[in-house]
Design a protein that fits this description.
With 69 residues, the protein is α+β, with helices and mostly antiparallel strands. The chain has one helix and three strands, in the order βαββ.
């Protein structure tokens, strides 16, 4: 096994339908520009509320990717 270096970034994904979709949106958007994604860790889930109703689900995601040598 070779030595590797990984970077971790924190993202917040949103969705009108679920926390799962919010996390998926964050990861899929990041994958357009970041290569070699490795691990996604959901660190926090919350909701945005408007007029007493859920307006958006939010997922805070720590996402790691491998640095190129």
């Amino acid at each position: 096994m070779t030595d590797s270096i990984y970077k971790i970034v924190e993202l917040v994904g949103t969705s009108a339908s679920s926390w799962e979709d919010a996390a998926k949106n964050a990861i899929e958007t990041a994958s357009r520009t970041l290569k070699d994604l490795r691990i996604a860790e959901i660190t926090k889930l919350d909701l945005r509320i408007e007029d007493g109703k859920i307006a958006a689900y939010r997922a805070r995601v720590n996402l790691s990717f491998k640095y190129e040598k």
